[in-house]
Design a protein that fits this description.
This protein is mostly helical and about 120 residues long. The chain has one domain. About 80% of the residues lie in helices and about 0% in strands. It has seven helices and no strands.
């Protein structure tokens, strides 16, 4: 297993745990059209930690990689929402908005790593 897969699993673990430590942060980026924001945040936190664990174990790596790729695609609207909201909020510093913009293309290599996990 490559370091990139371990790195992605680490990111998923940290992010998943943060969903429980600071759920309001994540609720704020759930697209407005979706109901049950708190529940979606908590479920996605569990899914992120589960995906991380699955990618680390050889028997479940394929399913974990596929689930991780799917999760990354599924949360893309929330990341776009965060960028849009940040750009519209004059209270947000420019560097925060820039960070949210730069984060969006990072989804592509993360999806590639997840798919690589599915084939390793």
């Amino acid at each position: 297993m490559g370091r990139d897969i371990k790195f992605l699993a680490g990111i998923f673990t940290i992010s998943g745990v943060l969903h429980f430590v600071s759920p309001r942060t994540y609720e704020a980026i759930v697209p407005r059209v979706l109901p049950y924001k708190r529940e979606l945040v908590l479920v996605s936190g569990v899914v992120e930690v589960a995906c991380a664990a699955m990618m680390l174990h050889p028997r479940t790596r394929r399913a974990g990689g596929l689930a991780s790729a799917g999760l990354l695609v599924a949360v893309l609207p929330a990341n776009v929402q965060m960028t849009v909201d940040s750009a519209r909020d004059d209270r947000k510093p420019w560097w925060f908005t820039l960070g949210t913009i730069l984060r969006l293309p990072l989804q592509v290599p993360m999806i590639r790593i997840a798919l690589r996990a599915a084939t390793s």
